[in-house]
UniProtKB/TrEMBL annotation:
Residues 186-203 have a biased composition (Pro residues). It comes from Candidatus Falkowbacteria bacterium CG10_big_fil_rev_8_21_14_0_10_44_15. The lineage of its organism: Bacteria, Candidatus Falkowiibacteriota. Residues 552-590 form the PKD domain. InterPro entries: Ig-like_fold, Lamin_tail_dom, Lamin_tail_dom_sf, NA-bd_OB-fold, PKD/Chitinase_dom, PKD_dom, PKD_dom_sf. This is PKD domain-containing protein. Keywords: Membrane, Signal, Transmembrane, Transmembrane helix. Gene3D superfamilies: Immunoglobulins (2.60.40.10), Lamin Tail domain (2.60.40.1260), Nucleic acid-binding proteins (2.40.50.140).
Length: 883
């Protein structure tokens, strides 16, 4: 019998150990917690690719051997920029996880593990990777500039074993693969079909000891460029090749050489400051086409193929020129690398040893010489930006360019863009420039050129954006201007166009097509009031909601109740303990301005006031006040609108005919409940509708579709009419009605006539910025603004999608926007989501799968705890028996 028991005990022990092992194994594979450095940001293409500057990507690497779930992880730019990426998925051990921007076409031939939106700034970002508990796993401190990567050559930023960064060996980097060994010196070009390059077997060595101001170092591809050359000179002139120094220091050219396509070598010597002209180079530059190579010793620094020279393809060759024209870079040093067609143009103005000037035809034909200057050192700058004008944003938004040079510039083909993919090429067909007609795209010296949103279709983000200026045929911006949150009616201005670097400042004076005027911002306008019985021992509600700040700054508040007691909340409460006149004051600050407002409050002696138990400290505000009963609390505040006030019974159609400050009573149907758009207001509709407001948030229980009666005072906030109530009793439920139906309108009709109505607008998403998208239905654009309380997922809404939006039309000063109430108000017509899908809704299958996953997790947790407990008990029994 005892033998059978022992065997049974052994079987139980083995079974328990088996259960524990299985549970532990499942748990380890299901939830491998990450530590600092387990996942690293391994490679970044912040500059995009050769195909598009918008084709950005980020690669993560798992340094451990175990799989790690990224569900709930966040990769974000913590310096206030984009992107903010909510990750999900699994990254396997010692493997890569590729994030591609916008779509899976970013990296050709490599599948993305995750698609994100939001652009990386070319001037650097601070990136943080956090797990689902908010713990920091990896961080890149690059707020002052990326430590590696090349925006011109499109070499990516790669992490090396030491944790430092390097340029990738080649353009495009190594997505989802081991990082390269770093950038190397570019190889010699492949031999041409008709006349191969024959560099010498024993090149002349670098010689000479540099004198003062000279530099004798090893240079890289593109540091010095072939800037201008003439293969077919005019009579009495000679062939020449001009070099341009893109470095800030002088260069010793001893040991440098120029080769042509035949292999003829010209030895160089001397000091290159900015320009260096080589006349009569060895060999002959063929008129029909040739190859020019610049070398330092054996290292190729630059090369240009022009005309019909066959170097694999003539499609990207520079053009050739006939007597007496030159072939010149479209701006000094302008270099898109490996595409001479983009970099060079034929010019009738030869500028040997000077800044390039591109002119289309001979001056003898009456055309002015015009400088297109597309390089980063261009005289054309972005000078003023207005992201949020007062009134119509489409008509009012603009980007102003300024010519700070001494030559006229033809802007044809120059491109403006923002942080999205939208681009606008300047063309002669634009009809209006700052209200003045123009018949071409010439910008004179010290003059302005204004591009409005109505022409460019570039919608600047009010919450912060980038404005980029591209030279013709270039994907590299000559200038990028980044701004933070804008304020209505304020433009972003260059303070001094001649300074280096340029500095920017906001101004309340907007000057399109005229010199910038920088003006300081407004001080806040302070006003306050109070409600409640001004009687000893009763609660007084102080209210600062009438205080305004035109700049939209964050304000701080300091109250003094005239007794020595203070408070810092916008709307505090206080109890006075003795009768008399007290000087209450409110001081408001926006950092630059501090404004104080004072008023006398007369406190009467208590007669038959309800008893109130208070703290014995009379020098503090009401912290510690205790109301003795519910009835006493009810008696301490107003229970409804003033009984001695005459209310005008009216309708929603006629309520706007009453003057501000009037007391009105109206009926309507609840279209959105309190707490969705704001905790202090909601909307009723009929024809049209109105906002119902309560500073103290005193609302009865309401549901959408309830028919109610509202009594209150007519007031205005940000230009929008509202009915201000005093207490919950001012709002009375009449009946439960049917849900209000939206009315169909065009985008052009969204305005004053549709204010506070429940509307429906359908159109194409033409822009997406921050908390807004813009719909274009062919008649105009309408802004759709997503309030945080509506809890709408905007990630599935993309430019090009066709959607229908239902929402309330709300006024914010001089602009109107549609506020959807919930996810069900956004319906996809066509685009990235399925047609007819309510964006952000969870399907039944998705819900079932989530539920099953949760059940599995619960089961694993249960097994683990159970087996652990059994093991503890078993160990205890064994130990006891041994004793």
């Amino acid at each position: 019998m005892s033998l059978i028991k022992i065997k049974l005990h052994k079987n139980k022990i083995l079974f328990i150990i088996f259960l524990a092992s299985v549970a532990f194994f499942c748990w380890q594979n299901y939830a491998h917690a990450a530590n600092l450095g387990d996942i690293i940001i391994n490679e970044i293409a912040w500059m995009g690719t050769n195909i598009s500057a918008n084709d950005e990507w980020i690669e993560l690497y798992n340094t451990t051997t175990g799989n790690i779930s990224l569900d709930g992880w966040i990769l974000s730019a913590t310096d206030g920029g984009a992107p903010q990426i909510n990750l999900h998925g699994v990254i396997s051990g010692n493997n890569y996880f590729l994030l591609e921007r916008t779509d899976d076409e970013t990296v050709s031939g490599v599948a993305a593990d995750f698609i994100y939106t939001g652009a990386l700034g070319n001037d650097g970002e601070v990136l943080e990777l956090q797990d689902n508990q908010g713990s920091l796993i990896n961080k890149i401190e690059a707020g002052s500039g990326w430590p590696a990567g090349d925006n011109t050559s499109k070499q990516t930023m790669e992490r090396v074993a030491s944790g430092n960064w390097q340029n990738s060996a080649s353009a495009g980097g190594t997505p989802k693969a081991a990082n390269s060994e770093g950038a190397q010196t570019p190889p010699l070009p492949p031999p041409a079909d008709n006349s191969p390059v024959s560099p010498p077997e024993s090149p002349e060595p670098t010689i000479a000891t540099p004198s003062a101001g000279q530099i004798n170092v090893n240079y890289r591809w593109g540091d010095i460029v072939i800037n201008e050359f003439v293969p077919d000179p005019a009579d009495e002139e000679v062939e020449f090749i001009e070099l341009y120094n893109k470095q800030s220091s002088n260069i010793n050219l001893d040991g440098w050489f120029i080769y042509d396509g035949s292999g003829a070598k010209t030895s160089l010597s001397g000091i290159l400051e900015k320009y260096f002209v080589v006349e009569k180079p060895k060999g002959n530059l063929n008129n029909a086409g040739d190859l020019i190579i610049l070398k330092q010793g054996d290292t190729v620094i630059d090369q240009v193929a022009y005309g019909n020279w066959k170097d694999g393809s003539t499609d990207d060759n520079a053009p050739t020129a006939s007597d007496p024209k030159a072939i010149a870079r479209t701006g000094d040093g302008h270099n898109t690398y490996n595409n001479n067609k983009n970099d060079f143009a034929v010019t009738a103005t030869v500028t040997k040893g000077g800044a390039n000037i591109i002119s289309d035809v001979d001056a003898s034909l009456g055309r002015r010489d015009v400088d297109v200057s597309p390089s980063g050192e261009s005289d054309i700058i972005i000078n003023e930006i207005l992201p949020q004008p007062r009134g119509d944003e489409v008509a009012g938004e603009f980007i102003e360019l300024f010519n700070r040079g001494d030559k006229e510039v033809d802007l044809t083909g120059w491109i403006l863009g923002d942080s999205s993919t939208r681009r606008y090429a300047i063309k002669k067909t634009d009809a209006v420039n700052s209200g003045v007609a123009r018949n071409d795209t010439i910008i004179k010296p010290q003059n302005y050129f204004v591009v409005y949103r109505r022409d460019s279709k570039i919608a600047l983000n009010n919450g912060g954006d980038e404005v980029k200026l591209y030279p013709p045929d270039s994907e590299t911006p000559a200038q990028t201007v980044k701004y933070e949150k804008s304020v209505e009616g304020r433009s972003y201005n260059v303070k001094n166009a001649t300074s280096t670097p340029l500095t920017w400042e906001w101004s309340e004076v907007v000057t399109p097509g005229a010199p910038n005027i920088i003006q300081i911002k407004h001080a806040p306008v302070v006003d306050f009031g109070w409600s409640g019985e001004p009687v000893v021992g009763q609660i007084i509600f102080f209210d600062s909601s009438d205080t305004e700040d035109a700049d939209g700054d964050d304000l701080t508040y300091l109250w003094n109740f005239g007794t020595g007691a203070t408070a810092t909340e916008p709307n505090p409460i206080y109890i006075y303990f003795q009768a008399g006149n007290f000087q209450a004051s409110l001081t408001v600050s926006d950092v630059e301005h501090t404004i104080k407002e004072e008023k006398i409050i007369k406190i009467k002696a208590a007669l038959n006031a309800s008893p109130v138990t208070v703290s014995t400290n009379a020098t503090t505000a009401v912290k510690g006040v205790k109301v003795t009963s519910a009835s006493a609390a009810k008696n301490s505040v107003s229970t409804g609108a003033k009984t001695n006030t005459a209310f005008t019974q009216t309708t929603l159609e006629n309520i706007r005919e009453l003057a501000k400050g009037s007391y009105a009573k109206v009926e309507g149907t609840v279209a959105v409940k309190p707490g969705v758009f704001s905790t202090q207001y909601f909307y009723i509709v009929g024809s049209p509708g109105i906002q119902v407001y309560s500073n103290k948030k005193l609302f009865p229980a309401l549901e959408v579709g309830d028919k109610i009666s509202v009594a209150g005072e007519l007031s205005e906030s940000y230009g929008e009419l509202r009915l201000k109530t005093k207490a919950a009793a001012d709002i009375k439920k009449i009946a439960t009605s049917t849900l209000p139906a939206p009315q169909d309108f065009t985008a052009e009709e969204i305005g004053e006539e549709t204010e506070a109505q429940l509307v429906r607008v359908s159109g194409e998403v033409v822009d997406k910025k921050g908390s807004s998208v813009w719909l274009d239905d062919g008649n105009g654009e309408a802004e759709v603004y997503f309030k945080q309380g509506a809890k709408i997922n905007r990630e599935n809404i993309n430019e090009g999608d066709k959607i229908s939006v239902i929402g309330i039309v709300s006024q914010s000063n001089d602009k109107y926007r549609i506020l959807p109430r919930s996810q069900q108000d956004i319906i996809m017509e066509s685009g990235s989501a399925q047609t007819g899908e309510v964006l952000g809704a969870v399907s039944a299958s998705d819900s079932w799968e989530l539920a099953q996953n949760n059940k599995k997790l619960k089961l694993i947790q249960y097994l683990l705890v159970l087996s652990g407990g059994l093991i503890v008990v078993l160990v205890g029994v064994i130990w006891k028996r041994k004793k």
